[in-house]
Every structure is written in C-alpha cells, then in structure tokens.
Amino acid sequence: MSTQHTWAEALVADAFHLTTNIVKCNQEFAPHAAIIPVSTPGHKPTVINIGHMDEVHYVSTIPYNEEVVEINVHR
Questions:
Q1: How far apart are CA 34 and CA 42, in angstroms?
Q2: pLDDT in tens, 4-63
Q3: Which residue ranges make up each domain of the chain?
Q4: Terminus-to-terminus CA distance in the chain, angstroms?
Q5: What 3-state DSSP class applies to 10?
Q6: What pLDDT shows up at residue 1?
Q7: 2 has a pLDDT exceeding 60
C-alpha cells in the first residue's frame, strides 16, 4: 500500500475474489463505486453491496433482523 492510489479495498478484493459495490451518500462523490478483483481464471467473484455514510463509514445494506442475527451468532 506504499504505492500512490493503492487502497486496502483493492487488496481485499483480489485476495478474496470479491466485487464490492458501494453506494455513497456524499453529494461531492459519485453515487456508486465498484471495487472489482483482478480476473483469476476459474474464480467467479462473490458480490457484496455496502453503503458508505460520512462520519459513520461503511454500513450494511441489509435490514437489521434480530432473528437472523441470533441464528448466526449461535452457530
């Protein structure tokens, strides 16, 4: 990450074959960004969607569901 314009998100995308769609609320930035991993033969990237709010940082785009949280915590 010592190289200019290298961000942790891109490193994570490549390591985990993960495409991340980010919806932003700040009107000074583009409303959507996509972080796409480097193409790896035989690996179809997993796609996740997250939100970004100023001063809160990243947030889930999935509504909070206490029952689902309870099931996942006690696995």
A1: 21
A2: 555 677 788 888 888 888 888 888 878 888 888 887 777 788 888 888 887 777 888 877
A3: 8-73
A4: 35
A5: helix
A6: 45
A7: no
- Give dist(CA 13, CA 72) in Å, integer: 24
User: ∠ CA 4-21-61 to the nearest 5 degrees?
Assistant: 130
**Taking a C-beta distance cutoff of 8 angstroms, is the pair 17, 38 a contact?**
no
Distance of CA 73 to the CA centre of its chain: 21
Q: How many CA atoms lie within 13 A of 24 on its CB side?
A: 12
- Residue type for position 68: V
Sheet containing strand 46-53, strands side by side: 32-35, 18-24, 46-53, 57-60
DSSP state letter for 65: -
Read off the DSSP letter of residue 37: P
User: Would you mind telling me the total number of residues written for the chain in this entry?
Assistant: 75
Whole-model pTM: value is 0.61
Look up residue 3 and give its two tokens. 């190289």
